[in-house]
Design goal:
This protein is an alpha+beta fold. It folds into 2 domains: 132 residues, Nuclear Transport Factor 2, Chain: A (Roll); 119 residues, Nuclear Transport Factor 2, Chain: A (Roll). It contains 6 helices and 10 strands. A 5-stranded mixed beta sheet has the order 1-5-4-3-2, covered by helices on one side. It has a 5-stranded mixed beta sheet with strand order 6-10-9-8-7, with helices on one face. Strand 8 and strand 9 form a beta hairpin. The longest helix has 17 residues. It comes from Croceivirga thetidis. InterPro entries: NTF2-like_dom_sf, SnoaL-like. This is SnoaL-like domain-containing protein.
Length: 285
């Protein structure tokens, strides 16, 4: 398969083309697409080679928080130019919109199969900031669930604020303070489905994972909650802490709620590299 980004796309990443983007108004920006639609189109352009979705990025203000990528549109272009034979691929599993933010869960072929969450911030209809967290695709967990399967049905749009507040309280009470006796205030023990590659369904699976960590001198410490984003029955949190042997880590957790309780969970945990390895100065969060 030929590189879906195409040589034409790579060529448009030179300085003269970026200057042209800065000085012109792209027709695509005038279409009545939602911000979520624009993000999905941008990610799908990895598969199609379409160049139009690049116009959804503001070339003058694009802030990059993937620490392996240089800042700005130029950094994005450099990644595209280094695509392996056959290019990158993206399968958007879930996409949600919260105010000026769009967040997605995507299965990538990006230097190998990856599970990822992406967050995009918009201003005036263009993407101006991007965060993400990626992990290699893992085998199904002890309950047979993958990092991607499960419900995709968006409901309860009138309960977005309520569900975001519930998840934020869960992070603060259970994961920060460790008040495990209150866990059934947040998780439905009869319905809880787990997509973490190492953890089984239900509260028993959660407890077994915590016991394993304790017995083996491992840690899972949530220290800072940076963002809570949601739409309807889905809520994504971006947190910072330590994982495994104490490495600085980023935790992206996606929760699905029913009747005010968490019933499904997906996550991506990745280590934060030392600052000497960063390709931009914007930080992970």
């Amino acid at each position: 398969m030929e590189n879906p980004i195409s040589q034409e796309f790579m060529g448009m990443m030179n300085q003269s083309s970026i200057s042209m983007l800065r000085s012109s108004t792209l027709e695509s920006l005038d279409t009545p697409m939602s911000n979520k639609d624009k993000v999905v189109a941008l990610l799908n352009s990895f598969n199609t080679g379409s160049q139009e979705p690049i116009g959804y990025i503001n070339p003058n203000k694009y802030i990059q928080h993937n620490l392996a990528v240089a800042d700005g549109l130029q950094g994005f272009g450099e990644v595209m130019q280094n695509a392996p034979e056959g290019g990158f691929k993206a399968n958007v599993i879930r996409a949600f919109e919260d105010g000026d933010f769009v967040f997605t869960q995507t299965e990538y072929d990006f230097f190998g199969p990856k599970a990822a969450f992406d967050v995009f911030r918009f201003e005036d209809g263009q993407i101006v900031e991007h965060w993400d967290n990626l992990l290699e695709v893992q085998p199904p967990n002890p309950s047979g669930h993958t990092q991607f399967d499960g419900s995709t049905v968006l409901t309860d749009l009138d309960k977005t604020a309520e569900n975001k507040a519930k998840v934020e309280d869960f992070i603060n009470t259970i994961l920060f303070k460790g008040e495990m006796d209150k866990i059934t205030n947040y998780i439905n023990p009869e319905k809880y489905i787990q997509h973490n590659p190492a953890v089984a369904d239900g509260l028993d699976g959660f407890g077994a994972a915590m016991k394993y960590f304790a017995e083996n001198g491992l840690v899972m410490e949530y220290e800072t909650l940076h963002k809570v984003l949601g739409q309807g029955n889905f809520v994504l949190t971006l947190s910072e802490g330590k994982f495994g042997k104490g490495e600085p880590s980023a935790f992206y957790d996606l929760f699905r709620l029913e009747d005010g309780l968490i019933v499904e969970h997906w996550d991506v945990i990745s280590s934060i590299p030392p600052k000497s390895e960063w390709k931009n100065d914007n930080g992970k969060f």
